[in-house]
Amino acid sequence: MAREKRMAAPGRTERSNGLRGRLMRASNAVAWVEARFAGAIVVAILALLLANVVSRAFGRPLIWTDELAVYLMVLGAFAGASLGIANRQHIAVTLVSDSLGPRLRARLARAVDTLLLALFALFAWMLWNWFDPVGVISADSLQAYSRASFNFLYQEPTTTLGMRKVWFWLILPIFCLTGLVHVLARFGTVSEHAQ
């Protein structure tokens, strides 16, 4: 993982350094879990696809493996995207930032991080409206909630697995939370490879 440096801001207090340190430790711990989770997902997808090939060779295909593999790919993609935010390893065009001096590069990093924070705030708002935890808790039942709101998030089953899709969709609020932690922990930092 590339080390990141923070441009020293005048008047920075020990308390904010302590908060940044706690956020960085939390972000690093989350990134560690995400890396292992994404690795386990890749192994599970490989095992599922191999099981499907073998079962088809014997004329008894496991019809649910394809659907589960797709859902696992989605889970792995969101875990990997969050890990990419943590390590600042997403694809980026650095033509402008590479030509800037250290101060302007730090300002650009803060502007990008501010946009990311705004994006995650918008995403959190959308997820809150979609998952509607207050509406679900206050409803008599999930069926009554779905009928009243036309939100079938909690009712819709997968095609072959027989599970509710909400269990896979829970990766969205998890991604929103972990991505937010990563952005806050590294807010305004400039990675070494960009310097």
TrEMBL record:
The chain crosses the membrane at residues 69-87, 108-128, 166-185. One of its GO terms (biological process) is C4-dicarboxylate transport. One of its GO terms (molecular function) is transmembrane transporter activity. Residues 46-187 form the Tripartite ATP-independent periplasmic transporters DctQ component domain. It holds the Pfam family DctQ. It is a multi-pass membrane protein. The keyword Ribosomal protein does not apply. Part of the tripartite ATP-independent periplasmic (TRAP) transport system. Belongs to the TRAP transporter small permease family. The complex comprises the extracytoplasmic solute receptor protein and the two transmembrane proteins. This is TRAP transporter small permease protein. It comes from Stappia indica.
